[in-house]
Amino acid sequence: MKGENNEINTFIMVWLSAVASLCYCYAIGKIIPKGFTRLLAIFPVIFIFLILPFNLHAINFVGPTSFFLVWLANFKLLLFAFGKGPLSSYRNLSLQTFIALACFPVKIQHHPSSQNLQKTPLKTSKSPQKHAVKFLLLAFFLLIYSNKQNFHPDIMLFMYCIYLYLSLELTLLLGGALARTLIGIELEPQFAEPYLSTSLQDFWGRRWNLMVSDILRPTVYNPVRFISSRVIGAKWARVPAVLATFLVSGLMHELLFYYFGRAKPRWDVTCFFLLHGLCLAAEMAGKGALKDKWRLPRVVSGPLVVAFVALTGSRLFIPALLRNEVDVKARREYIAFIEFLNIETEFRHLLDV
Is the dihedral of CA 133, 139, 140, 142 positive or negative? Predict the structure, then answer.
């Protein structure tokens, strides 16, 4: 119990340090014009955010902290240094809104100008029935996990893919509800039913983890495409831009996984993203050559895409998580939390008696 309290205290201190650092960035934005001078002033904060997750060990603390600070906040601060991105898209941001926009995938609810908003290509379903079904599926996976010794390892790898999607979407759903309740801002929809994808371009660009797509597009894809168009021409500039985007995504995932287990990476996660980048580039080239005159029926292309993502994910992506024992550590933390709640309940009952 003492160790858990220490971890909670450390978690609080990490986020207080992050908030203090973002207050500094907010002040820098007021007094230093955009450009390399502002980048130099903000760079110490980027370095601090890279270091902060090393203070944590609990998976349920390390995961969100490393993702929100190391990836989202740092990439947004890089854009902010040059007057771009969500931190520069709205005038007269309050400090509270600046911090929320920097750390989380949020959108402002009060009537911003339409030109500053990046609209999500597809709307995610807000049906309570669908969310309820996904919670039941997640509970069903936990039941299977508790009896995983009775299932073939390949079946479990496939189930992990489903669990990853469900846990990410439902965690962000709960976070969105909390954000709306506490500070009146709403999380961007992050998933648009990815199991309905009809192509890799549809899956990665319009349906899966849209906050990552939105942050990689201005930081990696657009600059590389602009430079490539001057070297190899506009027709082929998308290919190196796509490959560079998936390479950066792979490297960032390797870094996040390193925070989880502090183990030397084997680069299979990077291979996963490079493989998908190559396949996506080939798909885009094929569409350009055919000029959309011929396409596979949705009933065929949909299952093929989902099967390809699940197969490659179960062979290259999921094993990296399992090597770091993310599932074991997370389950252990859930059990400890439940036991803690039971102790608290019994203690209060004794006080009432």
Answer: positive
Place of tokens 């192509």: 199
pLDDT average, residue stretch 63-80:
93
Beta bridge partners, 186, equal 107
Tell me which range, 5-9, 134-138, 142-146, 184-188, is most confidently predicted by mean pLDDT: 5-9
User: CA 209 → CA 32, 194, 311, distances in Å?
Assistant: 33, 9, 19
Tell if the pTM clears 0.90, that is, is over it: no
Write down the residue that tokens 């001078």 correspond to.
37
Residues 257-268 have pLDDT tens digits of 999 888 888 999
- In one letter, which amino acid is 45? V
Going along 14-128, which residue ranges are E strands?
106-107
157: number of Cβ within 10 Å: 18
Q: How many CB atoms lie within 10 A of CB 235?
A: 10
53: tokens are: 């997750």
Rg (CA), the chain: 22
Among 94-103, 121-130, 221-230, the range of highest mean pLDDT: 221-230
Question: Do residues 56 and 11 touch, judged by C-beta distance below 8 A?
Answer: yes
Tokens of 69: 């600070």
> Which tens digit of pLDDT belongs to each residue from 213-242?
889 999 999 999 999 999 888 888 999 999
| E strand segments, the chain | 106-107, 186-187
List all residues 6 or more positions away from 27 whose beta carbon is below 8 Å from its beta carbon: none
Type of residue found at 87: L
- Residue of 61, 74, 53, 45 lying closest to 259 (CA atoms): 53
